[in-house]
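Morning - 3,4-dihydroxyphenylalanine inputs below, output right after.
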Amino acid sequence: MEDVLQQITQYKKEITEFTSADKNIAETFRIKYLGTKGVIKSVMGEMKNVPNEKKREFGQILNEFKLFAENKYQALRESTVNRLQSTVDHSIDLTLPGDALPLGSRHPISLVRNKIISIFQRLGFAVAEGPEIEDDWHNFTALNLPEDHPARDMQDTFYISQNPDWMLRTHTSNVQVREMEKGKLPIRIICPGRVYRNETISARAHCFFHQVEGLYIAENVSFADLKQTLYFFVKEMFGQDVKIRFRPSYFPFTEPSAEMDISCLICNGEGCNICKQTGWVEILGCGMVHPNLLENCKIDSNKYSGFAFGMGIERITMLKYQIKDLRLFSENDVRFLKQFTSAI
Ligand code: DAH
């Protein structure tokens, strides 16, 4: 019996260290130890050689040995299953279609603003910015709108109650003044930004909207330069077929002043309610910078001249995308916003 006991100890050691390169390691183990011709069976066969008084003790040892082997078998099986499962979990099936990631989209105002910027950048204009809370000098007075000037009424201004000299800028023309005051010439800038006016909100008006201002000051700048620049802009923005016309107009900051119309893109110039049956829509104001502005900003108006223009981004966006209600831009309705997916 001593021999068998020694054998069992040896087997236990083997079992503890049991390992195999076989994929089916648990099955290999089962056949070797627990199978009909396995180790356990053969050790049990020793029972008949054990003297009667020792049978009970030997039986217990055998049972314990069997349990030991069965536990190992169980552990091997579990580790195989886990390994198989973990292979499944972590494997990547490269043939599966990918999950669609919901992508945001740019606001149409941003798309059009970026397009305007890129067109003027190609003509050498740099982007300049200025404050939205502005003082009277930069928003009005320096722009040739002294205190009692009637044209101030054209722009319903939000004043800051603590200091009536401060206001929300009514146009991006304030940046013109700030750039000219820097005194670095020539100047060739566009200024995109948000502006505010105390207007009743409707499909055609809002209390805040966006403008792009343009300013070019150098020696010998002429009205022809202004026209060429704006022609280029309109053709790039709306296509080569669009028709353009200039109408004389009035702005305190420019002399002479003009407004520019383009042929209505909705009815192709035939007349519809967007163009009020005229076939034309106004898109910007412009003119030659008034000499008073140059002098206000300490620029020699005998030496330098320039042109300026200002346009509303909302108006251009509405024409470009045929949007009929200005309020859509600020309602943040995703169903509206998600339609504008790519750059223009
Ligand atoms: N500031 C004007 C407005 O808000 C737009 C404008 C017109 C700007 C003519 C200009 C300009 O620079 O020359 O209505």
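Note: The chain has two domains: 2-87, 108-337.

O.
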